Structures are given as C-alpha cells and as structure tokens.
Backbone:
C-alpha cells in the first residue's frame, strides 16, 4: 500500500518534471529570444548582445534550465518582462481570484452532476432520463463563450442581476469581485457538469445490472436504498478519473470565461501575457497548470485506492489490470 | 459496414445535422446572397428584412452570407487536424502498447506531461508566434490532441495483444509494424472511429474558441467564433448577428456528438465512460 502510494507520487513528480522540461525548451525554441523581444525590432545588435549578457542568456541552455528549475521549486519564477515585478506574486494573486470562481464551480458542478447522473440512471429510458441526457449532450456541445454570452444576455442585460464584467481589473476589491464571480462560475458549472453526469449515469446503469444489486433487490431492500447505498458508492469509482480530468480542465476553461467577463484571474493573465509575449509569466502559468493536473490525478488515484481495496494489490493478474486500462 | 437502418434515431439526426452544415459550408460561395466581406456603412445593424434575411452587422455586412461562409475555415481546420491527430495518436498508442515495458512507460510519461500543459495556452502561444496560417493551426491542434488519442488507443490495444492470432504472428517472426497494421488495427478500428467522431467535436469547439479569442482567422474573413465575438456587443440591437452563428455552431457540434454517441453504441464502445480526455 505504502509502496503503491510512493509509486503514484513518483510518477506524478516525473510527469511534472517532464512538463516543466517541455515548457522550458519549447519557449527556448521559439524564434527570437527574450533580449530581442525586450528591446524591440529597432534595437542595435550591440544592445541586444549586452542585454543578453546581463540576463545570462549566453550561458549554456542546460545550465539555465537547471537554474530556472531550482528557482521554480522554491516558487521563484523570475521577473515579468513587462511589469518588472516578480512573477510569483502576480501569479498567486491571479490564481487566488481564479479559485474564487473555480472552487464554487467545482463543488456545485460535481455534486449536481453526480446526483443528476444517479437520478437519470434510476429512471433509465423514461422521459426525465432522456431530458437530462439531451440537456447534457447540448451542454457539452455548446462552447463556453456561447454559454457565457447567453448568460450575460439573460442575467446581466435582460434581467440585470449580476454585473457582466469586472471594470477595475486586478485592483478590484473582494466586494466587487464576489457578485462578478457568479456568472463565470455558473458558466463553468454548465460546461463541466455534462461530462461527469454522463459518466455517472453510464456507471450507475452498469451498477444496477450487477448481481449484488439484484441480490439486494431480491432480499427486499427498498429500491431507493439499493440505488443510494449499494449502487451509487461503487458507481462513483470509475467516474473519479473523469472528475479529475474536468477539474484540471477548469484551468484551461477559465481562459475563455475570464476573457468574456474580463475577470482578472489566471486565464486573463494568460491571454494578456500571450499578447505581450511575457515568457516568464507564461512558463510559470504552464507549470502551475501542470501542477494542478498532476495533483488532481493523484488525488483521484488516492481516493480510488482508499475506497476500493481491489486496486490496492500491486501485482494484479494481467487480465484484471487490462480491463482497468480499457475503462480509462 | 454500417447499415443505415440499424442506426438509432439520434444517430441519424446527428448525421443529418453534420451533413447539412458541411453541405451548406461547401456550397456557400454559390448560394450566399451577398459578398460576406463587403461593407456598407449606411446599412449597418439593420434588422431582418426582405433584402437581408438576418439583417446586417455593425459594418453593414450581410449576416446570412457571413453565417453561410463562416464554417468553411473551421470545418477545414477541424477535418485536417482531427485526421492527423487520430492517425498519429493511433500509431503512437499501438506502438507503446506493443513494445511495452520501458518504451511504454517512457511514452506514457511523455504523453502525460504534454496533457498536463493546458491546450489553450500552448495553442495561443504557438499562434501568436508563428501566425494563424492554416497549417500552423492544423499542426498545433493535432499535437495537442495526439496524447489523448494515444492514451485511449493504447488502452484498447492491450486486450488485442494477448490474443492467439497476435502470438501466432509474433511466432512467425513478423515485424511490429506489420502486426500492428494487419492484426491489431482491424480489431481496434471501432475505438479509433469513435475517437475520431469525438475528437472532431472537440476540435471544432477549440477552433471556434481560438477565433473567438482573436487567434483564429483574420478579420474580415467570416467565421462563427469571430462573428460571435464581433457582434455580441450589439446583442440587444441586432441579435441575429450573434444568434445565427451560435445556432449553426451548435447544430454542428450537437450533430457530431449525437453521431459519436450513436457510433459508439453501435460499435459497443462506451463513450460516456471513456470520452473524458479533452
């Protein structure tokens, strides 16, 4: 068990290291280096050369990678090329504002998706089930920027309940951000619920067809208890990876949502940094996102281990292991 | 191999929706009533009328013509990028599964690391550096989706590798690529096809998202994502300019998803469970 957790942690760390490696070298491979970008196109070659020396850009690329990684581990991602401020403080402030919309969206979205999934599966083939399934299909087919636009039309223009944008950017106070966070969070809920709901419905339908569910029903356990006490807890297990992927995806999804609502979070920072080519900020955002991805997967894995004793044996018979791979 | 009669209603509706959108996009240059990029400042933001069925946008361009032609670029990019991503992803996935051990472990870690970096960030950076030319977009989007395809295909390949006919082929001394092509591929074709339909719907969404963020097509080229971005400020004055591209885009993606669902059910691949890696 301890060894298994150790292995999972290890692979997570390796993935994170590889992601940082790719990010660093992908940025290096881009045409034009930081010095040229800072000085613009009209800079003299001598000026570029001097700045390169000052920034240490002429030293070995591997040495710079090791230095960058060493600093990154301690949370130091260098200074922004545009503002000159430390990247980490900018990133953390934006990340905190993103969490303000992401965490409520996650909690509401996951709870709603699991409940609706079980609910629809229990009424398989009925009108409620088809309605829920069609709604889920539509929700996953409509891009976030359309959901956001429609929500703005309904809840900010026709019935002005919530503000449509944040006007004061990163300086907005918490009191100003809270009402502005509702519509972005709602957009994320709608987009993320669909996938988890479909997975949960499918998994619950399989669970209802198992022998232990039939046994429980034959013993005279009420249908409701069979559903919620026998089937639902096991049915959540295969849905865990779906949830973790969606949680990690939230960070990418916020790019669109934050740009529509002009919400000063990580996604908005990402768009702004792309347009100004603020490479240190982009590297830091990429590494932070990779960290979220790895953590979400790790948490899902560990939860599955805690909940399902079948997964705890390290040397599974080959056949078993394969079915687990296929499901994923 | 797929007989139309055996398909469910949902699948048929989906296929019709996709077919209709593609057909309209293909014949758009011949049926659009106006030039989609010709502006007319005197005629801006007018409502629906006999001469402009869906009204005009803020530059006086005909919304109907722009909507009809707005899918061409996105559909072309999506088709090329999805095909490339599924082809390469299938190759990488089967090779990883076939060689197993260190090759598999190495490839899996690399795929996971690529998946860990948000697709939108990578795409925005690539487009901002290399421009939004068709092939840059196609290559960038396929690179983003190759790891997800490869992971699914790798999972589907394992059960096939333990069958007797693969063992027999190995014993005959056949090469790995020959075994993958002749023995493995025909048996995972269902997974690959469903994967293609699913990826297509996500790629369409991603391409329109890029356009919406201003990193897709160059204005004034008509494109649904770009149209929604341009016209949403005039949502209350001339709603058709935003709603028309929303409807066409949704019809396309809902159709793709219905078709993918139906295809998955028909071929026995549970899509809701597996379709998680965007």
Residues:
């Amino acid at each position: 068990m301890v060894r298994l957790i150790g292995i999972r942690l290890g692979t997570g760390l390796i993935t994170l290291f590889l992601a940082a490696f790719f990010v660093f070298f992908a940025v290096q491979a881009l045409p034009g280096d930081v010095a040229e970008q800072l000085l613009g196109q009209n800079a003299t070659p001598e000026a570029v050369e001097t700045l390169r020396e000052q920034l240490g850009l002429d030293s070995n690329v591997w040495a710079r990678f090791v230095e960058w990684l060493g600093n990154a581990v301690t949370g130091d991602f260098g200074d922004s090329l545009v503002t000159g401020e430390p990247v980490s403080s900018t990133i953390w402030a934006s990340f905190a504002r993103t969490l303000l919309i992401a965490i409520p969206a996650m909690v509401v979205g996951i709870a709603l998706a699991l409940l609706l999934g079980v609910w629809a599966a229990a009424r398989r083939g009925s009108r409620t089930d088809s309605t829920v399934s069609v709604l889920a299909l539509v929700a996953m087919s409509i891009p976030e920027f359309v959901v956001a636009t429609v929500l703005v039309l309904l809840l900010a223009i026709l019935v002005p309940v919530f503000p449509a944008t944040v006007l004061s950017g990163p300086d907005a106070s918490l009191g100003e951000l809270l009402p502005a966070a509702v519509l972005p969070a709602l957009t994320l809920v709608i987009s993320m619920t669909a996938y988890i709901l479909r997975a949960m419905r499918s998994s619950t339908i399989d669970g209802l067809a198992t022998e232990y569910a039939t046994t429980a029903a034959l013993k005279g356990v009420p249908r409701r208890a069979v559903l919620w006490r026998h089937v639902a807890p096991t049915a959540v297990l295969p849905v865990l990876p779906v949830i973790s992927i969606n949680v990690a995806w939230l960070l990418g999804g916020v790019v669109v949502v934050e740009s529509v609502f002009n919400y000063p979070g990580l996604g908005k920072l990402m768009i702004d940094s792309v347009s100004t080519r603020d490479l240190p900020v982009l590297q830091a955002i990429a590494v932070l996102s990779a960290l979220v991805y790895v953590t979400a997967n790790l948490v899902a894995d560990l939860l599955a281990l805690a909940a399902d004793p079948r997964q705890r044996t390290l040397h599974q018979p080959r056949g078993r292991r394969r079915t687990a791979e296929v499901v994923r | 191999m797929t007989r139309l009669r055996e398909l469910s209603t949902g699948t048929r509706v989906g296929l019709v929706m996709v077919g209709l959108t593609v057909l309209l996009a293909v014949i758009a240059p011949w049926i659009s009533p106006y030039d989609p990029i010709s502006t007319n400042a005197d005629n801006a933001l007018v409502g629906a009328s006999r001469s402009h069925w869906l009204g005009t946008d803020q530059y006086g361009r005909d919304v109907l013509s722009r909507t009809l032609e707005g899918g061409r670029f996105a559909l072309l990019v999506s088709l090329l990028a999805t095909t490339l991503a599924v082809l390469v992803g299938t190759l990488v996935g089967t090779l990883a599964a076939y060689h197993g051990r260190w090759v598999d472990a190495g490839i899996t870690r690399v795929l996971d690391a690529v998946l860990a970096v948000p697709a939108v960030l990578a795409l925005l950076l690539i487009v901002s550096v290399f421009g939004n030319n068709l092939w840059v977009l196609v290559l960038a989007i396929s690179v983003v989706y190759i790891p997800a395809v490869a992971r699914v295909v790798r999972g589907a390949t394992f059960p096939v590798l333990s069958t007797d006919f693969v063992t027999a082929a190995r014993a005959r001394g056949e090469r790995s690529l020959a075994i993958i092509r002749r023995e493995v591929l025909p048996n995972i074709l269902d997974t690959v096809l469903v994967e293609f339909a699913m990826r297509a719907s996500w790629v369409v969404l991603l391409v329109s998202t890029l356009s919406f963020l201003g990193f897709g097509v160059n204005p004034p080229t008509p494109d649904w994502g770009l149209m929604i971005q341009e016209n949403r400020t005039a949502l209350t004055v001339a709603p058709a300019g935003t709603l028309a591209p929303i409807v066409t885009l949704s019809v396309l993606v809902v159709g793709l998803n219905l078709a993918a669902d139906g295809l998955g059910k028909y071929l026995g691949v549970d899509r809701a469970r597996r379709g998680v890696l965007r």
Summary: Residues 315-328 of chain A have pLDDT under 50 and may be disordered. The radius of gyration of chain A is 24 Å.
